[in-house]
Design goal:
10 helices, globular
């Protein structure tokens, strides 16, 4: 298959392809070509829309979040279930990031905006490959267990607005990873699974960077419209995020990434 001639074309192919390994390979190729400046952006000349939904393999079986079985890391089966859920999250992160690149490439932004999200797209693809490899080492593969179908809803709900997309994906969903990943790392080390802990360490390090990119560009967009970043974040989360923001929060990591408590602490009331 001929390689796309534009970054938008690559983004569309990454999101549309049903093969997870192909998604990863295309993401790596796209990032390398963009960094070498051998790709055009293609936003204004390419008017074909991004896919409404990402391509997916026949497995895993996708369930509503409320129907997902409870998981624990007790024993090998529990660790496999946890790593499988991480693989599904990272695959969705690949699609969410490249959808942002392709869907909003037409928005007038500084050149470093696309550079930042191409880097995120490359790192999410690398995360999926790392987690998938670890899953195989544990005796399983991605698709062997059911997974939930809730993550793409955030992309559909914010497909019309770049500022809303940034508020919900990096600053709510990915920021949640800053809260929960250190505990997962500790639990994996407690049960002697150093290999999985090291994979999680890489993901956690990159998550902080991704949240920082989100905070930087969210503030930039608010500044363009002379809006208070904190108040605009509150408005957008109340409008587009149904799950509620639940403590405990990793205040230190969030603040280091530019997501200070004034953004998220007032939203704890959403949980009732």
């Amino acid at each position: 298959m001929t390689a796309p001639s534009s970054l938008v074309g690559f983004a569309r192919r990454i999101v549309a392809d049903p093969d997870p390994d192909a998604k990863v390979a295309y993401a790596i190729d796209a990032a390398r070509a963009w960094r070498s400046r051998s790709l055009s952006l293609g936003a204004r000349s390419d008017l074909r829309p991004m896919p409404d939904r990402p391509g997916r393999p026949e497995r895993p079986l996708l369930l509503a979040p409320r129907n997902m079985p409870k998981r624990s890391i007790a024993g090998l089966r529990g660790r496999i279930a946890l790593v499988h859920s991480l693989a599904h999250i990272e695959l969705n992160a690949v699609d969410l990031t490249w959808d942002l690149v392709g869907r909003f490439a037409h928005v007038s932004m500084p050149g470093s905006f696309i550079d930042d999200w191409v880097q995120v797209g490359l790192e999410e693809a690398t995360h999926f490959r790392m987690v998938s490899d670890r899953l195989r080492e544990l005796g399983s593969t991605y698709g062997d267990l059911p997974a939930h179908d809730g993550l793409w809803q955030a992309a559909q709900d914010t497909g019309h607005s770049l500022i809303a997309r940034i508020a919900i994906i990096p600053l709510v969903l990915e920021a949640r990873g800053l809260d929960v990943t250190p505990g997962m790392i500790e639990r994996m080390r407690d049960v002697g699974d150093e290999a999985t802990a090291q994979v999680l360490e890489v993901i956690y390090c990159d998550e902080r960077k991704h949240v920082a990119f989100g905070a930087k560009w969210f503030r930039y967009l608010c500044g363009q419209e002379s809006k208070s970043p904190e108040l605009e974040f509150h408005r957008l989360v109340r409008l587009y995020f149904k799950g509620g923001l639940k403590p405990p929060f990793n205040d230190k990591a969030r603040s280091e990434a530019g997501l200070t408590p004034g953004f998220y602490k007032p939203l704890c009331s959403l949980t009732g």
